[in-house]
Amino acid sequence: MPVHIVVGLQWGDEGKAKALDVLSEDCDLVVRYAGGANAGHTVVVGGERFAFHLVPCGVVRPDVVSVVANGVAFEPQVFFKELDELDERGRAVGPERLRVSERAHLVMPYHRLLDGLAEREKGDAALGTTVRGIGPCYADKAARVGLRVGDLFRPEHFRTRVRARVEELNVLLAHRYGESALDAEAVAGEMLALAPRLEPYVTDTVAYLAEAVRAGRRILFEGAQAALLDIDLGTYPYVTSSNASACGAAAGAGVSPRAIGRILGVTKAYTTRVGAGPFPTEIEGAEGDAIRERGGEYGTTTGRPRRCGWFDAVAARYAARVNGIDAFVLTKLDVLGGCERVRIATAYRIGGRTIPHFPSHVEDLAAAEPVYEELDGWSEDITGARRVEDLPAAARRYLERVTGFLEVPCAMVSVGKDRAETVIPSTGKELAWS
């Protein structure tokens, strides 16, 4: 089936956007199904860098339609900012190439406020969110007090719902946080003012995608964040607020699970993490700093430095299995160039026992000591490689070991930032689209 998912296998920032960009050459639609402006996707085309937070990365291809589906926490202000930036760079995207679900929940101004206050109150126990209001938006969605994109086009209904929610929140703001009350009319007016510009993009994307599936169009689902940040399957509570795994695609886009064909997992050649939470393979000191600098490991959304560590095969294998991936994409292999030795965590030691599986409780993960396999590194510049055979022997061996741990074939290897700096194994495109 020509409906495929690209999903991260770590804690996000794996380079999913590049994989999506390369694969989108042969597709008709790219669909974002979860997360909000807390996710950053970076694409580099001919040396030109594009950073997206809400707009799907399919917009850099003129023949692809991009869809922001119902599972996304949608912030119109960020959406317009990204459209304006594309316009300034001569890559304007109109409603014929970009659709927004009328069912997507709105990130309201008070969501960002609540996010910041909650993180402040937690102090040293803060989760390290992006403070974009995504968690509070999804909390309102689950509590059935959220507002959706379609509500913007029913002004009186919208104002009534905002008044009711702000009345509740003002009690919380006053008695828990000692903050001033919100003006419901000002909040509603700020959001309603955005409706005229947004309206041309708004679509019943469930019906639109159902027709696209029936027509056999090639569709890529764009995963945000990654499996280890999934609200149900990740390292709870250090997770995001949506189903960031492949499991969220059907509900987040409103398509039948039966429509989904292949699932591609994306993993870095090493591991990174942003924010708080256990990280067994984290590299402290100069070696970790060197990988961060070579890899440009700073958040697209926040600019925060990412924590860097060796490849964690225990975590990646768990993510590969729960996502049911058919093949994987390995990114940033070039960043390991210059390491005399490279490591892969093959198991954990917890409480004196060797554990080959990924623990479900965060305290066990925090206590885990990685059991490493060491391999020779390489010093050669591999950004010019276009075939597996072009890679140094040590890099090929590393790729073979990662493939063995993930238990599925490799569809693509990224050896640099640019779209062209990509190795496609002999069966890569077939693995991706068959």
Oligomer: single chain
Distance between the termini: 7 Å
How many domains in all? 3
State the secondary-structure class. Answer: alpha/beta
Query: For this structure, what is the CATH homologous superfamily of the largest domain?
Result: Adenylosuccinate Synthetase, subunit A, domain 3
Q: How much helix is in the residues?
A: 25-40%
Summarize the biggest pleated sheet. 10 strands, mixed
Counting DSSP E segments of at least 2 residues, the number of strands comes to 20
Uncertain ranges: none
User: Percent of residues in beta strands?
Assistant: 15-25%
Radius of gyration: 22 Å
Average pLDDT reading: 92
Which fold name is given in CATH as the topology of the largest domain? Adenylosuccinate Synthetase, Chain A, domain 3
How would you describe the overall organization of this protein?
- It is a single chain.
- The chain is an alpha/beta fold and 434 residues long.
- Helix content is 33%, strand content 20%.
- The chain has 14 helices and 20 strands.
- The protein has helices at 16-23, 76-88, 109-122, 134-143, 155-177, 184-192, 195-198, 205-214, 249-253, 286-295, 313-323, 362-367, 393-406, 428-433; strands at 3-8, 29-32, 41-45, 48-52, 65-68, 73-74, 98-101, 105-106, 202-203, 219-222, 263-268, 271-273, 307-309, 311-312, 327-331, 341-350, 353-355, 369-376, 410-414, 422-423.
- It has a 10-stranded mixed sheet with strand order 9-7-5-2-10-1-11-15-19-20, with helices on both faces.
- A hairpin with a 2-residue loop joins strand 3 and strand 4 (48-52).
- The longest helix is centred in the middle third of the chain and has 23 residues, at 155-177.
- 49% of the residues are buried.
